[in-house]
Design goal:
With 109 residues, the chain is an all-alpha fold. It has one domain. The protein contains three helices and no strands. α1 runs antiparallel to α2 and α1 (7-75) packs across α3 (100-108). The longest helix has 69 residues, at 7-75.
Length: 109
C-alpha cells in the first residue's frame, strides 16, 4: 500500500481547513463569551435571590412572632388590660414604643 501525496489534493484540503478554522474561531469565542456572560448573570441573580430570601425569611419570622400579640391587640377592647398587655409585648419585642395599629396591619398583610 503506497501513500501518494498529490499536491493538487493536499493544498485545497489545507486551505479548506484553515478557512473553516478562521470562520469557526470567532464564532466559538463569541459563543463562549455569551455563555460566560450568561453564567455571570445567573450567578448575580442567584446572589440577589439569596439576599431577598433572607429578608423575606426574617420578615416572616417577625410576623410569626407577633401574630398572637397583634390578634390580642386587635380583638381586645380599647383601654383594657388585654390591650395594654399586647402593647407592652410589642414594645418589648421591638425595644421601644411602636405604632401598634401599623405594626399589626403589617403583620396581617
Amino acid at each position: 500500500m503506497s501513500l501518494d501525496l498529490d499536491l493538487n489534493q493536499v493544498v485545497p484540503s489545507v486551505v479548506r481547513s484553515v478557512a473553516v478554522a478562521i470562520v469557526a474561531l470567532p464564532l466559538a469565542l463569541s459563543v463562549s463569551g455569551t455563555l460566560n456572560a450568561g453564567s455571570s448573570f445567573l450567578r448575580a441573580q442567584s446572589d440577589v435571590a439569596s439576599s431577598e430570601n433572607t429578608a423575606t425569611l426574617e420578615q416572616n419570622n417577625v410576623k410569626g412572632d407577633l401574630t398572637r400579640v397583634c390578634l390580642d391587640y386587635l380583638l381586645s377592647k380599647g383601654d383594657s388590660k388585654a390591650e395594654r398587655a399586647a402593647k407592652d409585648e410589642i414594645d418589648e419585642y421591638f425595644g421601644g414604643e411602636m405604632n401598634y395599629a401599623e405594626v399589626c396591619k403589617w403583620v396581617y398583610r
